[in-house]
Amino acid sequence: MSTILLNFWGIIAIILVGYILARTNVVPKGTDRVLTQLAFASTLPALIFVMVSHGDPAAVFSAVGTTNIISAVGVALLYALIGRYLLNIRGTELTVGMLTACYTNIGNLGIAFLVAITGDATAAAPILLFQIVVLLPFFFAVLDWQTGRNSGGIMKALARMMTNPLLIAVLTGLVVSIVKIPIPAVIESPLDMMGKANVPIILLAMGISLRGSHIPKWGHDAAALLLGIVMRCIGGPLLVWLSAMPMGVTGKELMSLMIVGAFPTANNVFVFAHRYHANVGLARDAVIITTFVSLAVILGIAVVFHTA
User: H-helix or E-strand containing 285?
Assistant: First the structure.
């Protein structure tokens, strides 16, 4: 228990340092964006590659590894059914709302939370692959159809997917792990150092971004927003638990899977909404609110399940 709470305090402390740096103008505006871009292109792929290459590839392709995929599909379908038939949410509002519920911030803040608490990012690999390879192309196609905008066609979509640094890191890490290719120390050492820098960089960026943040207000899309928050922060980990229990998953493994299931809405959902000029406020507010709600839920999961 003390280790869990200490790790969580470390997360909060680094976020506070980032906020203080921004509040006292030690760092200029836009530093958070620079740091997240830096992490996405370098430190996070390094972290993922090192952990996946040293991990058990069977864990990625196992039935247990599918629990967060089941959860993502489940919350998306639940959002669609409840939103459409009970709350009368339609069109792009329904699509963006589904994204807020199922597309998680695994590539930045999520893995930072997971590694800070468990010390391992392997549990995030299956859903990371699923989000990039399946969810993203699907929702782009739906938004293309709904808005009449062409995002570049199948070839550009494939090019975006195959040049994603996170996908490249997962796939190369899996190849190294499966084939058991020895990694020379001159390569692994700098990758390991870069990977260890990822968590503090992301947490500092989060703290910096809090300076001058928009305070969400309940508006005409309140129902869509609230449903997305509940599905993401409560429905996600709950569906992971329901799908993992019949498989006999317990202890740290279950805790890791549920933490992944509770990751907040991805910042990229806000980017996607901007791209299609579709319900930008809904996406923005979901990202902000789920970030803080998710942090509380993850703390609860860590406390309850670390000895289960």
Answer: helix 280-305
Q: For residue range 273-282, what is the model confidence (pLDDT) as tens digits? A: 887 888 888 9
pLDDT digits (tens, 9 = 90+) for 197-210: 988 998 898 888 88
- The Cα 171–Cα 179 span in angstroms is 12
CATH level 2 (architecture), domain 2-211+220-305: Up-down Bundle (1.20)
Tokens 């990694």, residue? 183
CB atoms within 10 A of CB 197: 16
Q: For residue 260, what are the CA distances in angstroms to 60, 122, 126, 255, 257?
A: 14, 10, 10, 9, 5
Q: Which residue has the tokens 């503090």?
A: 200
Q: Please state the domain extents for the chain.
A: 2-211+220-305
Q: Quick count: other Cβ atoms within 10 Å of Cβ 17? A: 15
The b-or-e profile of 105-117 (16+ CB within 10 A means b, else e) is bbbbbbbbbbbbb
- pLDDT of 211 above 60: yes
Q: CB–CB of 240/260 below 8 Å?
A: yes
Q: How far apart are CA 118 and CA 7, in angstroms?
A: 9
Number of H helices, E strands in the chain: 17, 0
Residue type for position 168: I
CA atoms of 307 and 252, how far apart (whole Å)? 8
Q: Closest Cα to residue 238, out of 307, 139, 304, 291?
A: 304
Which DSSP symbol is given to 296?
A: H
Total-model pTM: 0.79
Distance CA 197, CA 87 (A): 44
CA–CA dist 106, 124 (Å, integer): 7
Q: How far is CA 166 from CA 45, 192, 236, 288, in A?
A: 5, 16, 22, 23
Question: Using an 8 Å Cβ cutoff, are 199 and 108 in contact?
Answer: no
| Residue 171, token pair as written in the block | 């796939």
